[in-house]
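Next comes this protein:
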Amino acid sequence: AFFANKVEHESRHCNGKGLQRQGSSYFDRVYIANQNCGHAYPTFLAVLWCAGLLCSQAPAAFAGLMYLFVRQKYFVGYLGERTQSIPGYLFGKRIILFLFLMSVAGILNYYLIFFFGSDFEIHIKTITSAISPLLLIP
């Protein structure tokens, strides 16, 4: 909602109709940052749900909240110089990788239970709970 509000505000500020503005560098940055966040959102939702359902809900929820904060940092950084958005982008990639690895660990645990009868769910939850605070390190 914040991103869309910024695009709408900048669109009105340019005094025109539609979303195509000529000559407004700031509007272009706002619009592209909004599009980038919108394109990354389905991937985020997919790995968040998979990590929460297949592995552990608490670390997945923590990583999800961190990702939303990081996307905010990316968006605001993108409005300044483009190099300011790089830390938010890299941090977001690390969080997506963490959620993806949680999903893979949950799937592997399912197949270990199915084929070998070994359940490592407690160990996986302990490891993910211990690793999730490390996401705070930039």
About this structure: The chain has one domain: 1-136. The domain at 1-136 is CATH 1.20.120.550 (Four Helix Bundle (Hemerythrin (Met), subunit A)).
